[in-house]
Specification:
It comes from Hydnomerulius pinastri MD-312. This protein has about 425 residues and is an alpha/beta fold. Helix content is about 25%, strand content about 25%. It folds into two domains: about 10-305, Alpha-Beta Barrel (TIM Barrel); about 315-425, Immunoglobulin-like, CATH 2.60.40. The protein has helices at about 10-15, 35-45, 60-75, 90-100, 125-140, 160-165, 190-200, 235-245, 280-285, 290-305; strands at about 5, 20-25, 50-55, 80-85, 110, 115-120, 145, 170-175, 210-215, 220, 230, 250-255, 310, 315-320, 345-350, 355-360, 365-370, 370-380, 390-395, 395-405, 420-425. Strands 2, 3, 4, 5, 6, 7, 8, 9 and 12 form a nine-stranded mixed beta sheet that branches. A four-stranded antiparallel beta sheet has the order 18-15-14-21, with helices on one face. It is globular, with a radius of gyration of 22 Å. It binds 2-acetamido-2-deoxy-beta-D-glucopyranose (4 copies). One 2-acetamido-2-deoxy-beta-D-glucopyranose binds near residues 357, 364 and 366. One 2-acetamido-2-deoxy-beta-D-glucopyranose binds near residues 67 and 101.
Length: about 425
């Protein structure tokens, strides 16, 4: 146990209301056996994640893999709900059949005695489609809470239009957990506007609440013209702070567990998953596992309403392997390439005040932090092929140190890659 949580009766009560899910791309389960689901779910459960939102893109092999997902989840008391990926073409009857197929499973996440159903986008299908989807299920005796991520609703001023355009929605999942093509940190303006609007929703299965997305990163380099990076350098820390201190939603949805192509996975890279031809060029070796340690801390805070007491010093660090201005021989320079800072970022989770040393090449930075979370960074050095050094010391005595296990290079770039390597060191 890294964190010690003292639960009073009152805190335990409030804990029941808070749920954390991770967005899981069922498309990436093609090669999955039930044991792969079990591994992912056990890992997720280990940091306090209650379940997966299953991003299902088509009525194809995914429905068969989801049979295994339900079996694995039932055995672990892990929860599932569907997140229909409406950027694909769906027949309403297929969606109804998919929801019905597992509607009596104990693994379903229930919101106020109804099945929760979410989406990625889907607003262009129109209100009649969604009302029809709900009534077709109701006719089968299945009441759902519909909380879609209609992604064109991002501007805070559109929140009331969302509600008047879609009388059938019960809740809202704000997809947007990255800055919108700007060199600035994300604010909670969208979250709070939609949270306030949706809380006025009344209906038979009132949800009236917002799902808050939290995401560590955003970088995609798959299709040339459409490729991007969003300014995400410290996002994994401040977005969680917004969740626990500012928005305090009923559900937090981590975006994502396994979307490798957009670089926001916090799950392990399963070597059996076929990532296509481009994604492996920026995903292989770029492990994100240590980001889960940060999530575990904030999930505990979110569920219990208080920051957990840290019992073990740890630094989680991340960095890209090439500076943003380098010319690479293949791939495309992503949109917003100028935004990220060329630096090694370190998030210290300390049980008490300590000094963190970050060194790389001829650059060295010391910062003091703790107890709790403190962030620091050191700029990329001018020297080629350098590896960062990270040390925790207290009262002049080294507690623990390590080196990153990926080099930062100033030359030899074969593919534009803004996905960070994530490592950690702990006592
Ligand atoms: C329903 O579940 C069965 C196994 O119980 C599976 O073979 C089938 O593909 C599933 N169909 C849908 C539409 O989910
Ligand atoms: C679904 O909701 C309706 C309307 O509130 C209610 O009458 C019905 O009993 C519910 N059905 C189930 C299976 O919960
Ligand atoms: C974003 O927030 C971090 C602290 O989380 C701060 O260090 C950084 O300067 C901010 N970035 C911008 C562009 O304001
Ligand atoms: C950082 O701290 C170490 C240990 O106290 C010290 O040797 C080093 O000079 C410091 N570096 C900087 C840049 O201040």
């Amino acid at each position: 146990m890294k964190y010690l949580v003292l639960l009073s009766a009152a805190l335990a009560h409030s804990a029941n209301a808070q749920n954390v899910f991770a967005h899981f791309m069922a498309q990436n389960s093609y090669s999955y056996a039930q044991s792969d689901w079990t591994n992912d779910m056990t890992t997720a459960q280990g940091i306090g994640i209650d379940g997966f939102a299953l991003n299902i893109a088509a009525n194809d092999y995914e429905v068969d893999r989801i049979v295994d997902a339900y079996a694995a989840a039932e055995a672990l008391n892990f929860k599932l709900f569907y997140s229909f990926d409406m950027s694909y073409t769906w027949a309403q009857s297929d969606m109804v059949n998919i929801v019905m197929n597992h509607s009596s499973s104990s693994a379903n996440f229930m919101w106020k005695d109804t099945l929760l159903v979410s989406t990625y986008s889907g607003e262009t299908y129109g209100e009649d489609f969604w009302a029809g989807f709900k009534s077709a299920l109701a006719a089968e005796g299945i009441n759902i809470t519909l909380a879609p991520a209609f992604t064109t609703y991002r501007d805070p001023s559109e929140a009331s239009t969302l509600l008047s355009t879609f009388p059938s929605i019960d809740g809202f999942f704000n997809w947007w957990s990255w800055p919108a093509d700007v060199d600035a940190n994300l604010t909670t303006a969208t979250d709070l506007a939609y949270q306030s609007a949706i809380s006025s929703r009344s209906g038979p299965y009132i949800m009236g609440s917002l799902f808050l997305p939290v995401s560590p990163w955003q970088f995609k380099n798959l299709d040339g013209a459409g490729d991007w990076v969003e300014y995400s350098d410290t996002l994994w820390n401040y977005r969680w702070e917004q969740a626990v201190s500012d928005v305090k939603p009923d559900i937090v949805e981590i975006v994502t567990w396994n979307d490798y192509g957009e670089s926001h996975y916090i799950g392990d890279i399963n070597p059996n998953v076929d990532l296509g031809t481009q994604a492996p060029l920026y995903v292989d070796g770029f492990v994100h596992a240590a980001w889960r340690d940060v999530a575990q801390y904030y999930i505990s805070w979110y569920k219990n309403g208080v920051a957990p007491t840290i019992t073990k010093d740890e630094v989680v660090f991340w960095y890209r392997a090439w500076p943003k201005a380098i010319t690479c021989s293949t791939g495309t320079l992503p949109r917003n390439a100028a935004f990220p800072e060329d630096a090694v970022f370190a998030l210290a989770m300390l049980k008490d005040t300590a000094t963190i040393t970050l060194a790389i090449g001829s650059n060295e930075v010391n910062f003091t932090g703790g107890p709790g979370i403190t962030m620091g960074s050191v700029p990329f050095p001018p020297e080629d092929s350098q590896i960062p050094y990270i040390e925790i010391s207290r009262d002049g005595t080294k507690v623990v140190d390590t080196h990153g296990s990926m080099y930062i290079n100033q030359e030899g770039c074969s593919y534009y890659n803004f996905n960070p390597f994530v490592g950690s060191v702990s006592e």
